[in-house]
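Input (structure):
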């Protein structure tokens, strides 16, 4: 594998040369400018961005082809042309002149690989594949760009200021103790980042100084923008969304990263709990389930042990998810908690089936009801006359009964109805039939829970706007979760 030794170079004030004037050369030139250099670009043709950088005085531009001697006295050179013969000449001259050189996508003519870079102030994260898979490096850079926002650059600045203030402490202790105290100061990275987002930079420095000086510090827990005192853990009631793991909210992903333990139900996609310490606490109609009181007690117990807990629930926590009961239990126990809503399958699964719950031409209202017999029975007659679209969750075990109740309540047995199984996943299946025939069609197709039942004229729109064909999607099938279950 080439380029095994990673380094970061100082290019400010150094003679850097870029040969080429196309899109790639422009990108490489911009990277040098961002790093503090004022490079010279040698090219016959240039992009508008290169011309603009020349006008701004950021680069020197020589509109001509490369010629031997151009690298004399240079510190670093980038070859960004489409001509391998020119790259060979550049590499040969760079070798003679002891100039570091990188010819883009031409590994044999490179002294180094230029990594993909995520910059956040003085924080710089680089990704390199040794020149073998630049597209993968760019993909990982995109992922890291989402992971590390601009607040990390501010955190680096604050840590630098705090370090200057505690440097005298370094002379009083050995290096291992110094390093251990810094490690402890950064143990709760999410707390520090939360303070940065809240504009509390001085509090960040106060926490760091106290740790490094080994002073007592009052802990502050932060789940969202508001700081909460106390040394206990917290609980976040997070909606996992309708099925597809990519549909979880940004806030939900952020809290999952910060969680020590994830307590989840059976509808959570395995990818969301992969490599996490996970505890199953789900319910399944007609099968053994975890009593709600035990789940409430578990969340309180884990938080009191100092664990940061995500209670991850399929769909939205407050849509037939009993999230309100868990929130009440946490509030009664004095545990800090946060609720993170998510797309409910009552809307999202239907959207993936091409069925809108409202449409100004045929449906100005909708209702979401439970088909679970253990809960309060909906007034089906009132629903049929009151709303245009009726969505039923957890109703598959009573499908025949629900259809009969709707028809008894005045619903047209010939009107379109539908069942969507595994909505938003690659295994999604949809049955559309007249309401009176729906149960028989669904049983014939073998559809089962989890599924959403929907009745109303909006179902008729599926024929034109169905867009998600699971057989043509490129999403991967659900892998084994790899979740750790021991506490």
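Output (sequence):
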């Amino acid at each position: 594998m080439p380029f095994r030794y990673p380094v970061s170079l100082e290019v400010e004030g150094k003679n850097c040369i870029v040969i080429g004037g196309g899109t790639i050369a422009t990108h490489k030139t911009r990277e040098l400018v961002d790093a503090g250099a004022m490079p010279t670009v040698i090219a016959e043709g240039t992009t508008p961005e290169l011309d603009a950088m020349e006008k701004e005085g950021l680069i020197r531009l020589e509109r001509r082809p490369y010629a031997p001697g151009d690298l004399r006295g240079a510190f670093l050179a980038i070859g960004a042309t489409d001509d391998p013969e020119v790259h060979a000449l550049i590499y040969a001259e760079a070798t003679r002149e002891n100039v570091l050189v990188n010819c883009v996508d031409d590994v044999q003519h490179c002294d180094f690989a230029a990594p993909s870079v995520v910059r956040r102030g003085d924080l710089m994260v680089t990704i390199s594949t040794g020149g073998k898979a630049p597209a993968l490096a760019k993909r990982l850079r995109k992922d890291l760009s989402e992971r590390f926002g601009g607040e990390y650059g501010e955190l680096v600045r604050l840590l630098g200021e705090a370090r200057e203030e505690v440097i005298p402490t370094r002379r009083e202790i050995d290096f291992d103790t110094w390093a251990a105290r810094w490690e402890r100061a950064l143990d709760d990275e999410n707390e520090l980042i939360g303070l940065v987002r809240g504009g509390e930079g001085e509090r960040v420095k106060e926490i760091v100084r106290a740790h490094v000086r080994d002073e007592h510090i009052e802990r502050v827990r932060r789940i969202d923008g508001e700081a909460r005192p106390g040394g206990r853990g917290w609980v976040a009631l997070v909606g996992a969304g309708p099925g597809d793991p990519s549909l979880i909210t940004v806030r939900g992903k952020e809290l999952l990263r910060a969680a020590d333990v994830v307590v989840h139900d059976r509808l959570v996609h395995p990818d969301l709990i992969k490599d996490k310490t996970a505890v199953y606490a789900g319910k399944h109609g007609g099968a053994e389930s975890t009593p709600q009181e035990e789940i409430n007690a578990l969340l309180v117990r884990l938080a009191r042990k100092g664990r940061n807990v995500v209670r991850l629930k399929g769909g939205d926590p407050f849509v037939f998810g009993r999230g309100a009961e868990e929130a009440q239990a946490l509030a009664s126990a004095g545990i800090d908690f946060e609720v993170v809503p998510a797309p409910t399958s009552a809307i999202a699964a239907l959207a993936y089936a091409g069925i809108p719950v409202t449409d100004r031409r045929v449906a100005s209202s909708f209702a979401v009801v439970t088909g679970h017999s253990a809960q309060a029975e909906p007034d089906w007659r009132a629903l049929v006359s009151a709303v245009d679209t009726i969505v039923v969750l957890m109703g598959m075990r009573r499908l025949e009964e629900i259809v009969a109740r709707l028809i008894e309540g005045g619903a047209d047995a010939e009107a379109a109805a539908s069942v969507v199984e595994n909505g938003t996943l690659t295994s999604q299946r949809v049955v559309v039939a007249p309401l009176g025939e729906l149960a028989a069609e669904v049983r014939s197709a073998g559809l089962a829970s989890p599924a959403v039942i929907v009745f109303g004229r909006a179902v008729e729109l599926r024929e034109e706007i169905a867009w998600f064909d699971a057989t043509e999607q490129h999403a991967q099938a659900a892998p084994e979760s790899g979740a750790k279950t021991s506490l």
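Notes: Confidence is low (pLDDT under 50) at residues 224-230, 471-487. The radius of gyration is 30 Å.
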